[in-house]
Amino acid sequence: HQPMRHLTSLRTGGEIACVAFPDTPEKAAALVARLEEHGLRWSPLGYGTNLLVADGPLDRVAISLRQLKAPVVFEGCQVKAPAGYSLPRLVNQCADRGLSGIEGLAPIPGSVGGAVKMNAGSHGYEIADVIVSVDVARDGHVVTLPRETLDFAYRHSPFTERDLILGTTLQLRPGNPEASRAEIAEYRRHRAATQPVRDNSAGCIFKNPGPGLATGRIIDELGMKGETIGGATISPLHANFIVTNGSARAADVFALIERIRSRVREARGIELDMEVEVWE
Ligand code: EPU
How far apart, in whole angstroms, are the C-alpha atoms of residue 33 and residue 38? Predict the structure, then answer.
């Protein structure tokens, strides 16, 4: 009975049946197969930084890969990383080794597996641009899927809640550690200045609706910054973030989401799509 509010950066969400921490990819794949065999609902859990969990209780098992013992392996300009590894840490390590191509992902506070699942991106970078292959659990085994077989798009991957991503191999290019570190520092500075990094949030709540259109700007132009329902508030710093206080319920966040959606629909005729993953 794990309260999801302790396992998500938004700090909301009710109790979930159980969280499992397999320590090898093989055990993780075997666990998925057994859960499926018994008809038990399960979901992959990354760092919970892009996740909105309902007030619950939720009848499902979360599988966290934070305790995977698999190492990060560097081979020429390729790097293989386990799903539970920290994305910012991986970006730093690549930069230190003079490997370039993922600097823009440095400010994203999630796991490698979570980044693959949502095709995380920022500053013009998307993780899909450098993916060579993705390891997933299939029928009790670890299977490697090459990039050509995977359809990625803006904040979208072909993986579903029934796919456990175990790791990925990325193709980088030779770079300069100093230049990469400077670029990363600039992205981190920009994030800290433009996003509510010290508040509880799940990052941007909605996708941007199209090229040249920023949801944050649209909500801001409607004058909605600071609007609050219960313990959930539209961030005064970036309007595509909902921030919560210590006592917010997921229901407050869902209500604020609906309010934003209907105002944007009425005012702009735009249907906003969720960017965060939702567990209900
Ligand atoms: N803007 C406003 N008011 C606001 C927020 C933004 O006018 O309250 C304006 C900004 O001034 C800027 C434009 O909207 O002109 C775009 O804003 P920003 O540069 O902050 O980028 P974004 O499109 O809102 C995207 C990603 C972020 C990512 C940043 C930086 C999406 C939904 N969001 O935000 O990703 O960090 O670019 O590259 O694609 C996330 O995925 O959770 C996330 C935060």
Answer: 9
Give the tens place of pLDDT for each residue, 94-149.
Answer: 999 999 999 999 999 999 999 999 999 999 999 999 999 999 999 899 999 999 99
94 as an active site residue: the answer is no
Q: State which residues form the domain around 56.
A: 2-64
Phi and psi at residue 175, to the nearest 5°: -140, -165
Give, using CA atoms, the residue closest to atom 36 of ligand 1: 122
Note whether ipTM > 0.90 here. yes
Query: Which member of 94, 103, 126, 155 is catalytic?
Result: 155
pLDDT tens column, 26-75: 999 999 999 999 999 999 999 999 999 999 899 999 999 999 988 999 99
Residue 28 lies in a domain: yes
**Ligand 1 atom nearest to 237, measured from its CA:** 8
Is 204 noted as a catalytic residue in this protein? yes
Sequence-distant (≥ 6) Cβ neighbours of residue 217 within 8 angstroms:
239
